[in-house]
Amino acid sequence: MKIIISPAKKLDASVKVQNSKMNTSFLGESTKLIQTLKEKSLSELKDLMGLSDNLAQLNWQRFQDWDISNSNTYIAIELFNGAVYEGINAKDFNKLDNDFAQNNLRILSGLYGILKPNDLILPYRLEMGTKLKTIKGNNLYRFWLDKLHQNIGDELNNEVLINLASNEYSKVLKLNKIKSEVTTPVFKDYKNGKLKVISFYAKKARGEMVNFIIKNKITSYKELKLFKNNGYAFSDENNGNILFVR
């Protein structure tokens, strides 16, 4: 079983610096993107990424300082913060959990392509939906599409793929063309008598499901349906989606 998730815009500045160089799978591709981003002026970057003045300045400087020899790196799953990563709660992982996560969990990234949880990275912000022009096309989907689709396909080897990423990120993989079984859990709450996806709660639940899979070493679709947390429980399945409601 392989699990895919999105990164987070919010980063945890309190985590420990690793003092080792980056060790990601697509470092060459990341370097090409950085070269393009370094050519952007502050105002161009702000417009491209839709950032506030402060965030534009922060990320423009990050891109300018980005270098493969930089050893001020962080463990990816510790650096990302936000609802999904609060649910994952990686700080509570033991060695067996970490090993299982490293083998089975993958983080999709606009800058790094695909990350394993313990990959070492530099802080960044670059959403997959960014319309950054490269030699491959007018956006990051065109840049990453073939490489990431093939990478995930090679890794799956007929395993089930659990899609816990947002649509912005998961569509870079062409999930409908992956030969293995793909399952997308959906989390809904009853509100005013109707079932709705409430974004914050759904994100937190996706992270909690990752924690459930890792802590319990889940390897089958049948076991996945046993997930029960914070009132969510399995309800139905349809066309590759499995619905959990509360």
Distance between the termini: 26 Å
Would you identify the regions where 5 or more consecutive residues have pLDDT less than 50? none
Could you give the count of β-strands?
Answer: 10
Strand content: 15-25%
Shape: globular
Summarize the structure.
The chain is of the alpha/beta class. Helix content is 39%, strand content 17%.
Question: Would you give an account of this structure?
Answer:
This protein is globular. It has one domain. The chain contains 10 helices and 10 strands. Helix 2 crosses helix 3. The strands form 2 sheets. Strands 1, 3, 4, 6, 7, 8, 9 and 10 form an 8-stranded mixed beta sheet that branches. 39% of the residues lie in helices and 17% in strands. The two termini are 26 Å apart. Strand 3 and strand 4 form a beta hairpin. The longest helix is centred in the C-terminal third of the chain and has 18 residues. With 246 residues, it is of the alpha/beta class. The mean pLDDT is 95.
